[in-house]
Amino acid sequence: MINIxxxxxxxxxLKKKCYSLLSPLFCRIYCKFSSVDKLKALARTYAHGYLxxxxxxxxxSNLVIILNKLKKMNEVDESIKWCQEMFDKGxxxxxxxxxxPKELVSEKQFKNVIDPDEKQFDFFKLVKExxxxxxxxxxxxxxxxxxxxxxxAIEAPCSCNRQSWKFLILSEKEKIEQISIFRGEKFLAAxxxxxxxxxxxxxxxxxxxxxxxxMDAAVAAENILLAVQxxxxxxxxxxxxxxxxxxxxxxxxxxxxGIPAQYELMCMVAxxxxxxxxxxxxxxxxEKYIINFHA
Length: 295
What we know:
With 295 residues, the chain is α+β, with helices and mostly antiparallel strands. The chain is built from 10 helices and 4 strands; from the N terminus they run H-H-H-H-H-H-H-E-H-E-H-E-H-E. Helix 1 packs parallel to helix 3 (57-72), helix 2 (36-52) packs antiparallel against helix 3 and helix 2 (36-52) runs parallel beside helix 4 (78-89). The termini are far apart.
């Protein structure tokens, strides 16, 4: 029994040693043949692990290899600068609010950190008043508003900072009608604007492909819906996962809009100026949602 345990320990040590020796080599090969998007996503994932203290020395070496490769390729954007700064300092770069003393920040300080010129509003009221809108007046959604909405979407949290979102933004009536047919939802044809949310599933490990992209798309969609409400528009979230579109319709959609196969369509948000405000469906009593509250 002791000999068996020794053999197992030796094999584990050997596996770890081989990994530490060969991993940098495999990382360089990966850098040579992978796309810029994949390298950036992996760099952000490694940086995320480093921030949590979960990165091994070998993985730290891999992060350095990837960051150097991106520098040579002149592909250093703000997210990669953040990774480099975080790795150099050994901690996440701080904002003015995060750098403040640990005592409670006053409401005035908090507002100034967010945006001193921004008109204040009641966030909880915004959330409670949001509802799904499926009928709109015939009025175009300004292009600037759509840009603002997507800017808010990409501020959403995401798994391991992969930032895998891809958005198809439509405001042409014919294109939206096509999507309405593909999805089998007649009301979509009347939407002045439509945002389709995809996730690049090639950025996820196999074990996460079934659930992490759904989570990442969902939080981005919620940001979109709140931005839509804030701008005085009305939106509706529509499921667009694999089970919601007939296979041939999905293939036609990808072909029509030139969508790469690795971009998985998750959901879509119809947007416009509402022609009426529907009464929001009542929620169950608060207690119904709570399993337990340990405080």
